[in-house]
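Postdoc handover notes: sequence design on the structure in folder B. Input tokens:
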């Protein structure tokens, strides 16, 4: 689906999702002369029960296989006075006794930078976990703010509530801030607020295309929703959404929050793993001694791609109903031929009837 110089690479909702094969065909049509990906005997066909092997060259100028310069933003959030005070006011060690460990101070600082909660805000946290993040949010919003936090696991929710009661933050008990309410709910069961949320934070990964729209609908215009958008292929980046007056959330990814560099040249940068994750659904990967292995748990298809760090030649072995190596390499070629737009330039959208990622190139 093309919009000028933009490509909506993935969507979910009323419009049909393109199949991986369609993504591959699109890549093949748009490849520049001399750089088209061809894997002999497999392109555009079912791999079948046997094991296919082929060699191909990707060209010495292809961006994903060099180190490149990562686009990073250095922000010292901990230096911010309000957040520094909140982090100092909560003893992290009090939240380390349960099965869910609290995030590090640096990791939480990154979340707070994106969420940007303010004093007096109404905040929804989906995924209470240990309760540490909840307690820090409670300190930030203060007595005139509210934090509602939901947790699917009964025992974890109960333990977090006890910690928050002990610290005087749970709204039904205590004599401290008493501005926190803990609810036992599934992540998809987002509570309907009496007044719109100012900020919404998803504590755990949200599957691509499955961010509950109720979280957006319950957030005021110009409010913020932060979630890590993940797939089976990669944990994915943190995405900061801002809600417009029509109830549509528009987001951009935080490049610093994506998984670090991979040891293998083929998927070394987080952007390359992310574009494969979006374009090739139901695909997992792991590093091997000589390359990467791809697996589709649904169809039992698999592939192994080997590449030497000092060469652009690949050796591909794959089998099953899906040609996973073809799909992954086609997605990489598609991305490279568009100049490999950095992750932070991707545009994410969540509406009542569709969720999509738009990559400009």
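Designed sequence:
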């Amino acid at each position: 689906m093309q919009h000028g110089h933009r490509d909506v690479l993935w969507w979910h909702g009323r419009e049909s999702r393109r199949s991986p094969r369609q993504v591959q065909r699109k890549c093949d049509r748009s490849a520049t002369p001399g750089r088209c990906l061809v894997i002999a005997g497999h392109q555009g066909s079912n791999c079948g029960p046997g094991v296919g092997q082929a060699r191909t060259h990707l060209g010495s100028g292809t961006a994903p296989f060099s180190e490149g310069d990562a686009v990073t933003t250095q922000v010292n959030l901990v230096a911010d006075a309000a957040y520094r005070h909140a982090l100092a006011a909560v003893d992290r060690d009090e939240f380390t006794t349960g099965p869910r460990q609290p995030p590090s101070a640096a990791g939480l600082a990154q979340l707070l930078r994106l969420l940007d909660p303010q004093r007096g805000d109404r905040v929804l946290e989906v995924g209470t976990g240990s309760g540490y993040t909840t307690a820090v949010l409670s300190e930030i919003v203060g007595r005139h703010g509210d934090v509602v936090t939901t947790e699917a696991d009964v025992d974890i929710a109960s333990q977090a509530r006890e910690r928050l009661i002990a610290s005087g933050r749970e709204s039904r008990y205590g004599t401290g801030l008493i501005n926190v309410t803990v609810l036992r709910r599934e992540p998809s069961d987002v509570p309907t607020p009496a007044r719109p949320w100012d900020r919404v934070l998803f504590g755990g990964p949200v599957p691509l295309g499955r961010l509950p729209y109720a979280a957006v609908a319950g957030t005021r215009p110009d409010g913020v929703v932060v979630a890590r958008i993940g797939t089976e292929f990669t944990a994915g980046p943190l995405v900061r959404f801002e809600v417009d007056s029509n109830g549509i959330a528009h987001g951009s990814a935080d490049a610093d929050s994506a998984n670090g560099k991979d040891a293998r040249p083929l998927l070394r940068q987080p952007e390359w793993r992310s574009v494969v994750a979006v374009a090739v659904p139901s695909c997992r990967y792991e590093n091997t001694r000589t390359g990467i292995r791809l697996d589709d748990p649904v169809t039992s298809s698999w592939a192994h791609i080997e590449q030497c760090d000092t060469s652009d030649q690949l050796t591909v072995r794959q089998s099953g109903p899906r040609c996973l190596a073809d799909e992954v390499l086609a997605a990489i070629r598609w991305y490279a031929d568009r100049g490999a737009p950095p992750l932070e330039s991707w545009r994410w959208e969540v509406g009542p009837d569709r969720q999509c990622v738009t990559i400009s190139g």
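Context for whoever picks this up: Confidence is low (pLDDT under 50) at residues 11-45, 55-79. Don't rerun without checking with the PI first.
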